[in-house]
Amino acid sequence: MTDYVILFPSDDEARWEAGTEADHQATFDIDAEFGRLLQDRGGAITGGAALTHSRGARTLRRAADAGVMVTEGPFAESAEQISGFFLVRCDDYDALVEAAQVLVRAHPVVEIRPVDED
């Protein structure tokens, strides 16, 4: 089986924080529906996590003097940050993409990337 990571790079963190418990549950329900659809197609969610707000991130970059620069917050200067991810395993990439289509009801952008096994 092939491993994939599914990223949610455009979720609005401020909207999530302002959301109600019912709003959050609707997202969790869609994520669970994805899990069921994936399982029906022979795949499985093997891991994943919701991430805390990007303001809690620390970004490390190689500095011009070959040192390391540490900055607070995400690297990208954007209101949109990766809010979470799933690790999945599936033999059929097309079936994974088909199952993942349900996720766009809760996440405006869903990025699916194969894990490099080399």
TrEMBL record:
Pfam families per record: YCII
Protein name from the UniProt record: YCII-related domain-containing protein
PANTHER family per UniProt: BLL7171 PROTEIN, BLL7171 PROTEIN-RELATED
Organism: Knoellia locipacati
Cross-referenced Gene3D superfamilies: Dimeric alpha+beta barrel
Signal peptide boundaries: none
Family: Belongs to the YciI family.
InterPro entries: Dimeric_a/b-barrel, YCII
Ranges for domain YCII-related: 67-103
